[in-house]
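Sequence and structure are no longer studied apart. To make this concrete, we show below a single chain and its fold as tokens.
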Amino acid sequence: MLGALNTDGVTPTPVKADPSTHFIMTDDNTTGSDLSDAPAIRDANRVTGLMAVSEVDGVTPVPLYVDSDGKLLIDSS
């Protein structure tokens, strides 16, 4: 799985998982990022990164951000 690097909003970045539990690594209670309104992020092989739909309209695609440690940025609060 790929997400967009949160520091620039466009660099495809692998999402990492714990090898013993197989759980996706997350960075909870983050503020996320608002760096890109770009269409689907793609790597050099044209593989699409993680996307979600906007909570505002339920239609607009938005990239999911990953930090430099490969942790998916979430806010469960």
